[in-house]
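Students often ask why we bother predicting the structure of a whole assembly rather than each chain alone. The short answer is interfaces. A chain on its own may look different once its partners are present, and contacts between molecules only exist in the joint model. In this exercise we take two input lines together and write out one structure for the complete complex. Read the inputs first and try to guess which parts will touch.
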Amino acid sequence: MKGFLAAVGVVAALFVANALFTGAFGASLAMSPYVLQVICLAGINIILAVSLNLINGFTGQFSIGHAGFMAIGAYASAFVTVTLGDRLRSILSFLPRAGQDGAILLAALAVGALLAAVAGFFVGVPSLRLRGDYLAIVTLGFGEIIRVFILNIDAVGGARGYSGIPKLANFFWIYLFAALTIVVVYRIVHSSFGRTLIAIREDEIAAEAMGVDTTRSKVISFVVSSAMAGIGGGLFGHYLMYLHTNSFTFIKSIEIIIMIVIGGLGSITGSVLGAVLYIALTEGLREFSQYRMVVFSFLLIVIMIVRPQGILGHREFASFLTRRRRAPAVPPAPLEN
Amino acid sequence: MALLELSGVTMRFGGLVAVNDLSLALEPGQLYGLIGPNGAGKTTVFNVITGVYTPTSGTIRFDGSGIVGERTGRITRRGIARTFQNSRLFGDMTVLDNVKVAFHCRQQADLPAAVFRAPKHSSEEARVDRESRDLLKIFHLEAAAGERARSLPYGSQRRLEIARAMATSPRLLLLDEPAAGMNPHEARELMDLIRWVRDHFGMAILLVEHNMKVVMGICETVHALDYGSTIAVGKPVEIQSNPKVIEAYLGGA
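Now the answer. The structure tokens for the assembled complex follow.
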């Protein structure tokens, strides 16, 4: 019941904020389109970063293919609205306009998430046998294969890009899904299944010896994470109304990795912070014009020197607010032999 | 019928024969010691039983069914749990969570139940929490439940390894040098604890140990290996006076 009330509260707050930002309460209260767009892209980054953290941070499997699954979700859901949008709208004509938009968006995102999850399964099953660098290279490869594959599908625009996507996503939907992603990842991590993921990160051999089906756990976390990336991609396409495969190169995957590394691998709030910080820095540094990326890279280096474990490390933000109990003094562990 | 039965198990790594034609049988509830000088193949025997290695030849039967070729996790779910010679705890997890992970393989609630916080999930979490704390109490670790496993003193880490293995509800527990690095006092306490655990939970224990006091003190049967081959099997007193065993440890005259 408490959870239900909280959910209703979040939806209401997002709804009001959305109306406020877009000028429904008067143009003077509206946010500039540029700032609003940056905030919305930050929300999509949160979805991507938090979902990638499930694989890279909590399960400890280094994947560099997140942009590929984002692309599948983006193109699949855009294809649904472009080809079936009008038909769906006539079926839903009894709903008000915003309701029609929302229903079509949800249907499109469901298709995008499903296809991304299927792709995640077929990529994950063979590649999750590999560890460390090898897994990173294979996922990088699959990410690029997906991108080039889409680039050659003429039905979604090919190299011209995919235009004519209706603007169905807005601040409300993006942050609703960001909140949903955070809640789902939090609940997965704080469950019996989530403990097996963290155990795999800590010591895969010991996890297997404790009866954990490590392959199953890894594949499930990969599939869930891919589905969430698909939703992030779907929102991306329906917000910008245009897609091009250049948005989904491995550079995009690296960007998401940077977000979770600076925020702290294995910290959900860290990923949120990293995602917001990333876009705040890249946008905020625009006044440096051609030196922008130099300054940005320099700041990343400083963060990594000062906080090599990421800004929040493995911990969640709330754990910094509650005063930590002083650990009892322990004698130093004697060396073996 | 024997709980665990190895017959003619050989493990070759290239030209090296780590385990040579090993046969042994463990009855339910038995405390069985495996001894031998460094490099005798004791840990390899553990790795072969738990499916980390597939033996070059021979058969392993657990509770009547062959387990050669099965994955480690599957074998654990059948009821064989182990500890590691060099502690392999989940260092960044709390002591309590280390034990809870091992409970997972006996749990029913699945991922959707966790995501939707179904009542089944909550009640099972509460049960696992209670049982994990009970296990920690047995191993004198309840005060450290919230600590990270990495920050535990060495002796406690060794005990946590056993507690974690116990959480999988094994019928056979493989302990790989549980007393390694312990002082005589700690080793004696551990010995009592192992015997108590066996009596209380009734599982069979296969113990690899260098500390002769521990092995001779608690095992009913001792099996001596040297260069992968069996040199003697018998009661502790017989093994202690066996000339072959003495020669393997101290060298021939």
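Check your guess against this: Residues 119-138 of chain B form the longest helix (20 residues).
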